[in-house]
Amino acid sequence: GNDIQSGDDCVPIGGETTASLVAEPDAIRYVTLAGNTFDSTRGFAVRAYVLAGQTGTGWEVTNIIVDDCCGTAGAQRNGGIGVQDLNAGSAGAQIRNVTVNGVDLEVGSTTHDEVNAYGLWLQSAKNVTVHGRFKLTDKTSAATGFKLVHGRDSDDVTLSVQCDTLQRNLGVDIDNCLRWRIVNSRRRQPSVSTTNTIKAADSALRV
Hints:
mainly beta
């Protein structure tokens, strides 16, 4: 594997709005990352994405595998893993078939700015499986703190995750999502916390 350090996302998988890509976009498919170590200051360890305004098959991101990776992410901003179509379209319209297996990430810090403070962020994605461990560290005197999972408009998701000490915010927060399964997962919650573990709005969830 590789040691990857970045001030932003360690491995961004998606198209940018450069002149050449806008004129002739090309889908990204069948990408595998295995055995890598990440160190990201203000971005995600891995981010598979479609930017707002990018629509059509040429912008699709599909069949992504992240296997047996570890390290730190989102020390100052953002979080651990992002799978995001920012066009607010239907689930899987442009980003789908993403597997994250055996990931072990330390996310955040006591100086995190609380922007996109999510261990895992899923937006308008479909057919996503995530297995692994997230250790989340909130900002000192945080207003919100980290969520383990932030899911919006995403379907057919399976989670098997361990989270070390989530202090203030939700474990799993999903809205307008279908066919989610949470299996063999564990979240350590301190006795002082008043946080709910799961919040599901307009969603179908199986635990």
